[in-house]
Amino acid sequence: VREKRNTPHSRRHPRLANMRRAVDATRMGDATFSKMDKVSSELFSLTYGAMVTQLLRDYEEVDATNVQLEKMGYNIGTRLVDEFLAKAQIAACSSFAETAEIIAKVGFKMFLGINVEVVPASSSEFSLTLNENPLAEFVELPDQYSKLEYSGLLCGVLRGALEMVQMRVECSLKRDVLWGDDVTEIKVVLKEILEEEYHDDDD
Fold it and tell me: Which of 29, 71, 127, 154 could form a disulfide with 105 if both were Cys (CB 3.0 to 4.6 A apart)?
């Protein structure tokens, strides 16, 4: 007679494991958000809007402004990740899917105060859907700026932050409430796991 082993529910039911992971990440996000200094969402939105307006004046073209917004986000992300890791005290993620949950439930909650849903596509790809977007509050795009990736800064933040933890990704804005969509959607695709660089103290 072969001994019957007790198999953890998470192994038998991957979907159940994903639900538990999401619940744990949500609790972690709520706990971390409660410790953060709060900024008025209206002030935040208006300040961001003023910055985007200035970029449009400086670069005069929507495409060039989109590039600059993503670059600015990238630079923010490379610096923000240290604060995120220090305050959230998160261990290394075991998969890209777990990374997605941490970004959605902890990262967005911590810095923007919102809950974001993860839509998995494959082991190396997922989408984040924002039912509420603080960046886009009080904003309407004129016809001449209909192709403006107003929330493209978020794509850059994700790209920069993930690169700092050895993940090279491509992030793109697929839907936006300012384009007439019902939600804002960011697609994230893992392109490469980077090797960590080590430097000798003598260098």
Answer: 29
